[in-house]
Please model this.
Amino acid sequence: MSLRRLLAPTLVATVLLLTSCSPPAEFAREQTAADHPDSVVDGSADKIDVATLRYVGMADEYDVYLARASDDSETLCLSLALDDVWQSTHCGPGDYVSVPISNTAHVQAEINYRGGEDREMISENVWVGRK
Model:
């Protein structure tokens, strides 16, 4: 058996382990003042871990924020603000969450999103899905 055949499975396993352990890009950067506006913190503080709150971009007219749930560090939450006023926060289940922004569109986040589909991406793991 060649050395390549022996090393290939080990290399693949190592890469998969390292990518699954690294935090999502949205959480990997330092939190800034723009990541936690008072209206979002006050409106969703009972649902989210404020230390994980990150601004990820715009979806139509909404500012979109991604966070982890306060009672489960594996559960994702999305918060929406409109003109600096908190509108809603939705969490999970688990590493996927979807929030309606209109009758035909949802903001969605999934930590294990790997691409391949035609989606209107807001950040690396957050997108707008339209019907």
